[in-house]
User: Fold this.
Amino acid sequence: MNCRSEVLEVSVEGRQVEEAMLAVLHTVLLHRSTGKFHYKKEGTYSIGTVGTQDVDCDFIDFTYVRVSSEELDRALRKVVGEFKDALRNSGGDGLGQMSLEFYQKKKSRWPFSDECIPWEVWTVKVHVVALATEQERQICREKVGEKLCEKIINIVEVMSRHEYLPKMPTQSEVDNVFDTGLRDVQPYLYKISFQITDALGTSVTTTMRRLIKDTLAL
Amino acid sequence: METDLNSQDRKDLDKFIKFFALKTVQVIVQARLGEKICTRSSSSPTGSDWFNLAIKDIPEVTHEAKKALAGQLPAVGRSMCVEISLKTSEGDSMELEIWCLEMNEKCDKEIKVSYTVYNRLSLLLKSLLAITRVTPAYRLSRKQGHEYVILYRIYFGEVQLNGLGEGFQTVRVGTVGTPVGTITLSCAYRINLAFMSTRQFERTPPIMGIIIDHFVDRPFPSSSPMHPCNYRTAGEDAGVTYPSVEDSQEVCTTSFSTSPPSQCVFTVTKAHFQTPTPVVTDTLRVPMAGLAFSHQLSSSRLSYQPAVLGVGSADLAYPVVFATGLNATHPHQLMVPGKEGGVPPAPNQPVHGAQADQERLATCAPPDGAHCAATPSSSEDTETVSNSSEGRASPHDVLETIFVRKVGAFVNKPINQVTLTSLDIPFAMFAPKNLELEDADPMVNPPGSPETESPLQGSLHSDGSSGGSSGNTHDDFVMIDFKPAFSKDDILPMDLGTFYREFQNPPQLSSLSIDIGAQSMAEDLDSLPEKLAVHEKNVREFDAFVETLQ
Assistant:
């Protein structure tokens, strides 16, 4: 199976990095999360309810919708914060990227560990610009807001293609497809990583962060 | 593979499409209320959450949607449309968006109804949630208040995009293939206002009293910035109840099977819900002529004759902003107490015959007969509206209350503190302000600008001259209660605006006044010898003081 790959690019001011990344990541995860599965007898299951909430950005004229799950929001904010700090400390051109990868676990026989097979990867490339005047910043607020609107439309367009999604799993397989560790929602298994790059695109500092709920440790 | 849909699947599909249409309308209207929406996730499935999404049902909106659908479903050539428009306090209106739920003939016979179609419809609703925050009308709707409100209208039939002006853009939210056709959800939105709106409203002088009151005197101090929708309770409080979706006596209890899809179990249970409201059955039988709608609406919207309200059809545009204190018997008003505790008093608007700026109207409105007819009739709009503004709870107030009710998200100040200045042209707030207004706005006309003489200069040239045309008591027009953002009367006796006005024309320095200066000079000279004598007496003290300094 081929892994679907989507790339988005944004140019933002330093203080807008967090909100821009959260907006994109939350929008993708909104589409890639379901309610909690409750398995019943005879191989049937029912699905919980996903709530949503609007989030206004402070530094961008933009509002995005995210899943109502504090745990998920905290996890994303943590990794986005690390990315922002890495960008700031890199001292480079202010180029970096974050990757949100959805994967499935495939059981392997002992002694091999489970294989993680990605089926969709979203890459967001960030270019941080420095602005001098307040007027420029005000224009940047609006422009970045408009750009993010375009990105959301791009994301929704990809989602509407209804391309490959993992098959709904049985109860024993659910942790190979979904992240069942959250209390109120159930996103597909995902991991987020980021890289700080220089102008040539090569990785100057590679920092990998994994957010995996390993319910089945080897 | 089945090529024909069995009856159970067909029934399920029809139900899915019906509730999808209702939920679509809810999402769109709620996104234009001007507030942030927040619903909770629930790990335990409840029977009422269609498509596994927590989307509240505003009863009035469901009622109107069902009335528009009249028991039909979107089909080829019959689309369900939600039109979002903007109406200014002067009575001018403009279409902003049309959301279309359409069906085309392209069928996907092999798709499983109760599993794949259901999940894809759920995904489409999530996409709709995201896209509704992204079109230009969203930011406009978040700023609605004194100057304008956002209205919605639901109609069924052919899509009419004429009102969007030239160069409108479309965005496709998504498609879902079904065995009977492909459902498409898209939005066509006006763009020629978007640029003006976002810039204009941020710089519009607050003398108009727009939503700068956001942070002043929130009427419900306990409410958090995010308001969970709770309109059902409010509707009951107001004495009018609408049948909620559950009253159709069908709930969705879905069970999915992980065995081969052909064994999908989908149960629909009939259950009564707590709200024992009467089921409105007559709406389903009202024949709806899709095409006739728009013209009726245009004329009714623009003429505002109270008689139109009694027609009882779904023609009128409904304020997305919920009004309070309205006549409970009127079925078209959304009976939700908003953020204010009571009915807002009427604005003291000067009655203006709306001398429509033809050029402006032509650019803003399409060359549609109904809309252009607004020009002569809009004058009577404002007349009717203003004249009826004195009354409070009479039915004639209904329309007036529609667009004056919303004063901004967190305000409980009476609207009559706001005065609209004399702008006669339609969509006046979108027009560049004339110099007079700009002068009065401290934000636009900062101190020291060329238009204003500095206080220092003013005092040198003449006594008590005012600095240019700005200032408080010397204004040619009245500015009442300029409230900059983040200002609270309770905490500070003087806010930024008052401070600025007061100190814009300070009294001249006495030492700089020539006459007084001349007088004091003479006095000084006379008193010099006395002062010298006193100082000589205290010579020793002075010397001691000097020594301490060394």
In short: The longest helix of chain B spans residues 7-31.
